[in-house]
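Appendix B, Record 12. Input sequence as logged:
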Amino acid sequence: MSDRLQELTAFVRAAETGSFSRVAREFGVSQPSVSRMVASLEARIGVKLLLRTTRQVTLTDAGTAFLERARQVLGDLDEAENLARGVDSLSGLLRIALSGAFGTREVIPHLPAFLAQHPKLKIELQISDRAEDLVAEGADMALRLGALTDSSFGARLLGRAPRLAVASPAYLAARGTPRMLTDLSAHDCLTGPGHSGRRGWSFKRSGTLTSIEVEGPVRVASAEGLIACTKASLGIAIVSRWMCRAELEAGTLVPVLTDYELDAVDVHALYPGGRRPSSKVRAFSDYLASKISE
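Logged structural output:
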């Protein structure tokens, strides 16, 4: 039975990634071993499930139909095992895709307590500021900040954090503190990923929304880099409170334009569409939602 489950898992991951070599790395075996697993599965059921080329593997029509049922079987088995053990005895591997800054600052510090509750569970963090393909990368869930763009994923809102404009005390001492939005024209404004406003910043005051174009010497592709540039006194930036909590507490960054409001930034847990989130995903989502809401 274990061989059949291994074959089924190998087929699902090969179909999802389009690569025997990637599955081999995940399994810690050779690429021919993965190919033999899938071939054995095909021989047993008498149907060709995958088409092999030198570059990739693709699903046949029969393979497409079989894939969904195979996913369901593996998911149901995982769920049944965890239900039998109880929610306090989750086991196996939970793969989480997330961005570097949010992961480092708001997720990793909460992992020790979560793993203490579930000592049989292991976590793999796939940290990248790029929005990876959840299915291809084999992640059980992803944590995404900002607006969602892919409706093919299931999603759960975990929390919402205010955004604010910040600068270093040294920058403000040298350039002055802006009091009105029009003052920003005399300042260097740093732009970054996502909500950091490469096309301008929008503020709300007394129910009125005002958008303003900003310019600055630096654009940054990561939130961590944006915070570092702001701490280095290169200008004013917009960040979420999650991202600059430590700097605000230490006084290395201070808020400006506090009479104005900015839209909050959301964090969602995403999981592959068409599947009910596993008990591991649900348990971690519940836990993280309770922590970041604090």
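The chain is about 40% helix and 25% strand.
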